[in-house]
Design a protein that fits this description.
With about 850 residues, this protein is mainly beta. It has 16 helices and 52 strands. A seven-stranded mixed beta sheet has the order 9-10-7-6-5-8-11. Strands 38, 40, 41, 46, 49, 50 and 52 form a seven-stranded antiparallel beta sheet that branches. The two termini are about 20 Å apart.
Length: about 850
């Protein structure tokens, strides 16, 4: 039954008087309508408040159930929710808004109103409604490690013990129970040391990287060399293949380092990789290292590569652009995969390179539907030779003149440490340099050998950029055994060790239990080490920069020194003994028989863990709309539009799960609880009501009809579709007398076919410049029932063949495509879309107007 809003002559007269409109008696038999409106309206936030408080609407809601007033409550909720629900339907309450806003609308007036309608949240979120906390105790860690070592933390090899811990401690668990498990974690396995003589184990056999890269996700342990780095991880190879190790932070490993990596691989950007949870063990450095000869590739080569991708060392030319944290390369000839530079280290690209053609050399190491990802090893303006070499070339090269560029990672009184991601090198001068950590600098001079490593002594230093921020990597924690081993095979990396400080004049030495090798804090800056720490146990964090000729000292450029929290007899294990400080958290569920990590096929599950709260400076997240998008950006740096993630976090109400979606603007936003719909309301002799037989009816002449544009391929074009007052929706990819390859869509608002009977789609089109090609090759009519803001990530039914007529393309005369039956989609919601494609052979101009989706009966009215 239709719901009408009636306007009495008195009320109408009052409204007209208020609006200074001339009153016309619509019931006069000689009445001729003069103000027939056709308006497209999208409700604003204030419109929902007006609808909720409207006296007429309040009367309608109260009359439905005067006793419980559930419908009044539902109507009142529209004000804050800004969406309609089953108990507060749009078709009943929008007419009052229209009657008040357009009191002079004559018979035959139509209003296409777009509004928000509640949609059920993802079903899996119900599973996450009730989550309890469990924090591992000292007894839990003891059950893991036994008597071999006292370690109050888990490692990559022991996180699989969590289910057993939960089974032993959580009684009467029910199927579906959820626990957020908090625990201390270290990527470094503890060294047991001491005790009885253990049997000699056979030589370790590691998985081949080539096999791991080709295999499905799983637990693997590989050994190889670091061959390239960026600001979030590195590539490693063992000669059989190459694999990414993603650390999600500044890497503490340099090109040429020999490492063992153990963890559970997963596929990302087309290739297998090790995640940040993987264990990384440094085993030494390669005796020699050289970059391979790069393969020069064009845009077409990159497209061919993406079809059968392999990690490859290449040289490419393109226009370098930067927007925030996105570093892109526009490469001529690419059609679907623009260049994207993965987390370049500071100093690699300069301000002068922006918006210029550059030659980059590096590894093609990933791809998505829109991008090919590069890990860059060097860059220069196009057609020139890079004046700067990677630090790795210095470390493995002869002692000669070099130009290098990078960022200041640490400093002491007689110089600083420069890093460019490929390696670290000491820059020494007795008087020091006026630089600060984070500054981007160039160094020109001759390298030399010192303390088992390379350095520059009194070179020319130029500061390119000041005020930058350098994030220290996770320090490698050294045991007494590790310290003793260091002086036999030194390397430059951020390390951490514990010992007793001994200050004697300008000498700061650290006596380490269990070894005769001491830490030497080199050329300490004023006030960097408080004098009252003398004689106390301290924890040193800093860059290991070589050993003395006597091999008695590990030279350290400190970044921090603090009083140790461990007991004097404790081994150097992380975290400290005693109080258990949780660092990580994971979600577990009980399946009726056992506990297991919680997984979900519909979305990623991201836990806001102890370290995140520490960085936030609060035990709860009070502004999730601001905090969680930043958290997700760091956790999923390569997210694509439509990706969903549920974040588990502590709010003021307790543990909470909120779903976010990565939108088309490349940002995370909370998944809305509503979708948009469009309904046509019309004026007849009885008043204003929803015309439920009309789903869309729009001329498109200067109005979008609520349709939105989605570009799949632009290839340098600014746009394909535009809405015009003269021609309706218009598409073309013919620019500068060139047929450009493209694919672009216009997509309707959601159409509610739940009560539909026989919906029909029809519109008029005109086109030219197809050069004799079949229109259905380049133009498409499609419908989807699972569309979620991304045309590439849903299922489409192609209706193009159902169109009975197309323009012959010889004139600009519009042709009606006929009636396309949508009956098979009755009972749910759907969107319809027009797809435009072009290529070098044809880039037509297409015009669409008078678009309708209506009930078949409405076509005969």
């Amino acid at each position: 039954m239709k719901k009408y809003i009636y306007l009495s002559s008195i009320a109408l007269a009052g409204l007209l008087s208020a609006c200074n409109d001339e009153y016309v008696d619509k019931f006069d038999i000689d009445y001729n309508p003069t103000d027939v409106k056709s308006i497209n309206l999208t409700l604003s936030p204030s419109d929902y408040a007006s609808i909720a408080s409207n006296a007429t609407n309040q009367e309608i809601a109260l009359a439905k159930d005067p006793e419980t007033q559930v419908f009044v409550e539902a109507l009142n909720a529209v004000k804050n929710n800004k969406y309609f629900t089953e108990n507060a339907p749009a078709d009943e309450y929008i007419p009052a808004l229209l009657a008040g806003r357009y009191p002079n609308a004559d018979l035959g007036s139509k209003f296409n109103v777009t509004y928000n309608v509640y949609q059920e949240p993802s079903a899996y979120l119900n599973e996450l409604s009730y989550i309890a906390d469990y924090s591992l105790t000292k007894e839990d860690y003891k059950s893991v490690w036994g008597t071999k070592v006292e370690a109050n933390f888990l490692t990559p090899s022991t996180t699989d013990k969590i289910p057993a811990i939960l089974s032993a401690n959580v009684k009467d668990a029910q199927n579906g129970d959820m626990l957020l498990v908090n625990y201390a974690y270290s990527a470094t396995e503890p060294s047991i040391g001491g005790g009885t003589v253990e049997p000699v184990e056979p030589a370790k056999v590691y998985d081949k990287i080539g096999d791991v890269a080709a295999a499905a996700a799983g637990e693997h342990e590989v050994k190889g060399e670091v061959i390239a780095t960026n600001a979030r991880g590195f590539l490693m190879s063992d000669g059989t293949g190459t694999i990414m190790v993603y650390q999600n932070t500044t890497s503490n490993y340099s090109v040429g380092d020999s490492v063992i990596v153990k963890g559970t691989t997963s596929k990302y950007s087309g290739f297998m990789q090790f995640p940040k949870e993987a264990t990384i063990t440094r085993t030494g450095r390669a005796a020699t290292f050289t970059y391979p000869t790069p393969t020069t590739m064009t845009g077409a080569d990159i497209e061919a590569w993406a079809a059968k991708a392999e990690i490859k060392y290449v040289k490419v030319t393109g226009k370098y652009t930067q927007s925030g944290t996105y570093y892109n390369l526009a490469i001529d000839g690419t059609t679907a995969h623009a260049g994207s530079i993965q987390y370049p280290v500071a100093g690699l690209f300069t301000e002068e390179m922006k918006d210029k053609d550059v030659d980059i050399t590096g590894y093609l190491c990933g791809y998505s539907s829109k991008y090919a990802y590069f890990m860059v090893t060097s860059v220069a303006e196009a057609g020139t030779t890079d004046a700067f070499v990677p630090v790795s070339n210095v470390l493995y090269g002869a002692n000669e003149e070099y130009n290098i560029r990078g960022v200041v990672a640490a400093k002491y009184a007689r110089g600083f440490l420069l890093t460019d991601g490929t390696g670290n090198v000491l820059v020494y001068k007795s008087g020091g340099y006026e630089v600060n950590v984070g500054d981007e600098v160039t160094v020109k001079g001759k390298s030399s050998d010192y303390a088992g490593l390379k350095q520059f002594s009194s070179p020319t230093v130029e500061v390119l950029k000041t005020g930058g921020k350098f994030t220290l990597p996770a320090a490698q924690e050294l045991s007494a055994e590790d310290v003793a081993a260091y002086v036999e095979a030194p390397y430059c990396a951020l390390v951490k060790y514990t010992g007793t400080l001994n200050i004697s004049g300008s000498y700061y030495n650290v006596v380490i239990d269990g070894t005769t090798v001491q830490g030497s804090l080199a050329y300490v800056l004023t006030d960097a080490v408080p004098a009252d720490l003398n004689g106390k146990k301290i924890t040193v964090t800093g860059y290991a920069i070589g050993q003395t000729s006597s091999k008695k000292y590990l030279n350290t450029m400190i970044t921090s020194v603090e009083e140790a929290t461990t007991s004097a007899s404790a081994k150097m294990l992380a975290p400290a003994q005693g109080e258990v400080a949780n660092t990580d958290a994971a979600l577990y569920t009980f399946n009726g028989t056992a506990w297991a990590p919680y997984t979900n096929d519909n979305a990623n599950i991201a836990v806001f863990g102890p370290q995140d709260y520490e960085a936030l400076g609060s035990n709860v997240v009070t502004a999730p709309e601001y905090v969680l998008p930043i958290f997700l950006e760091k956790k999923y740096p390569y997210a694509e539009a439509g990706t969903k993630a549920a974040v588990i976090y502590k709010s003021s109400k307790g543990l909470t799960a909120t779903e976010f979606t990565f939108n088309n603007l490349y940002a995370w936003e909370e998944t809305p609880l509503f979708t948009t719909e469009t309904t046509t309301f019309s004026v007849d002799k009885d008043g204003i009501s929803a015309n439920l037989s009309i789903y869309i009816s729009d001329t498109f002449l200067g109005t979008t009809g609520g349709f939105t544009v989605q570009d799949v391929t632009l290839n340098g074009l600014t746009y394909v579709w535009s809405n015009t007052a003269a021609y309706g929706w218009k598409a073309t990819a013919y620019v500068n007398k060139t047929n450009c390859e493209s694919e672009s869509w216009i997509v309707s608002p959601a159409l509610n076919f739940k009560k539909a009977k026989q919906p029909i789609l029809t519109f008029e089109e005109a086109h030219k410049y197809l050069n004799g090609a079949d229109p259905t090759v380049y133009f498409g009519i499609l419908i989807s029932t699972d569309y979620k803001d991304d045309v590439t990530k849903c299922t489409w039914t192609d209706l193009t063949a159902d169109a009975q007529n197309w323009s012959d393309g010889s004139t600009w005369d519009y042709v009606n495509v006929g009636q396309i039956d949508l009956s098979k989609f009755v009972g749910g919601k759907a969107v319809v879309a027009i797809r435009y494609k072009s290529d070098a052979a044809a880039a037509a101009t297409l015009e669409i107007k008078n678009f309708k989706v209506v009930e078949a009966s409405a076509l005969t009215e």
